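Colleagues,

For the teaching module next term, I've prepared a clean inverse folding example: a structure given as tokens, and then the sequence designed for it. I'd like students to try predicting residues themselves before seeing the answer, so please don't circulate the second half yet.
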């Protein structure tokens, strides 16, 4: 799954209506709504400011007065089809006086977002996982070496009756590290849920 490194824009003119599309990185709904408000302020004469959001496993789409399902949903479908996450798509429409019909609107909003995505700078989205393990003191050196070799970041270390480490690493390597540690420590490692404080 990819996300965007920076905003990208495209503008199209269809039957005298002007469609100004923007795709940009976005963390979630509050940020998206703030951005849409900014666009409304920048384009007070625009007929519509439609948008679609895929972020944090949540999606949202808004037709902003266009016939239901003709703007936001098609824009959202483009983001999904492109395999994007953490992205807001907006299209500002200046009405040119010629009605496009439902099919024409779907095509216009879909094409506007697709055009903006052509040159959008993408980056691979890295998923992270947190592992928390406990083990006897004699295993500490081995566990720390293996965690470092796996590219894990040490988030916390506690030294009580046993050593407890909390590690963060890319999700695709977390299972492999856990399995390797289980084998290397010969069953003397215990797995705990991540500490919510970190």
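(Answer key — instructors only)
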């Amino acid at each position: 799954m990819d996300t965007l490194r920076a905003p990208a824009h495209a503008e199209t003119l269809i039957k005298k209506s002007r469609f100004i599309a923007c795709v940009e990185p976005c963390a979630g709904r509050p940020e998206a709504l703030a951005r849409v408000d900014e666009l409304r302020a920048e384009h007070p004469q625009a007929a519509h400011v439609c948008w679609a959001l895929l972020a944090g496993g949540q999606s949202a789409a808004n037709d902003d007065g266009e016939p239901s399902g003709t703007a936001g949903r098609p824009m959202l479908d483009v983001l999904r089809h492109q395999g994007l996450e953490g992205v807001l798509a907006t299209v500002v429409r200046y009405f040119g006086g010629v009605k496009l019909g439902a099919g024409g609107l779907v095509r216009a909003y879909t094409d506007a977002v697709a055009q903006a995505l052509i040159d959008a700078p993408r980056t691979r989205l890295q998923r992270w996982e947190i592992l928390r393990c406990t083990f006897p003191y004699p295993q500490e050196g081995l566990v720390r070496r293996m965690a470092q070799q796996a590219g894990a970041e040490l988030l916390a270390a506690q030294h009580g009756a046993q050593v407890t480490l909390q590690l963060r690493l890319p999700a695709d390597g977390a299972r492999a590290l856990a399995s390797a540690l289980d084998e290397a420590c010969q069953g003397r490692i215990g797995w705990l849920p991540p500490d919510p404080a970190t």
